[in-house]
Amino acid sequence: AQTVTQSQPEMSVQEAETVTLSCTYDTSESDYYLFWYKQPPSRQMILVIRQEAYKQQNATENRFSVNFQKAAKSFSLKISDSQLGDAAMYFCAYTSDNDMRFGAGTRLTVKP
Amino acid sequence: DTEVTQTPKHLVMGMTNKKSLKCEQHMGHRAMYWYKQKAKKPPELMFVYSYEKLSINESVPSRFSPECPNSSLLNLHLHALQPEDSALYLCASSPLGRGGRTDTQYFGPGTRLTVL
Lengths: 112, 116
What we know:
- The complex is a heterodimer of chains A (112) and B (116).
- Chain A has 112 residues and is mainly beta.
- Helix content of chain A is 0%, strand content 54%.
- Helices cover 0% and strands 54% of the residues of chain B.
- Chain B contains no helices and eleven strands.
- The mean pLDDT of chain B is 92.
């Protein structure tokens, strides 16, 4: 069964600094998608970044980038120039077929 | 437009009530989902409607009943709920990627349900 593991329940970063959130997953599939979602206290799940497994190049979206290591089954999220609005719960997610699996989440605090 | 709408935003119901949650998307997505999310936990998949076929998480009790009137709408009918069913209920939709795989899921704002 596919599983997603986020080993950092909580992380903290100073405003304008860089932080990296970790995610590992387990799968026997070769073709799948990986995502990072953000859920602020307002509760809506917002897509941060998406990675296709067959693409070697790491995805980037403005201040957000990933380090995708397919062989190691690792998918970390780097947030550069952290802003107060980045404070939220971050979920790593994996999908193949009809099912999306989420990690337990990492709560990110941004200190002014 | 990547908007998924959900109504109502909040719902309080007694254990003997019957109510429905509504989810709508106009992105032409072929798959829609219902999730249950408890505080500080990830969403748990309840139902998937994909290619006009319903898939059910077998652990979901029968007091939850999904209905898909058309490809843009997904309802969740609630009957005889228990206090432990109180949670945030999220709806999502997604296009289907290569090989019919689920691609990015776009979430609605959720319905906060309280069962008294």
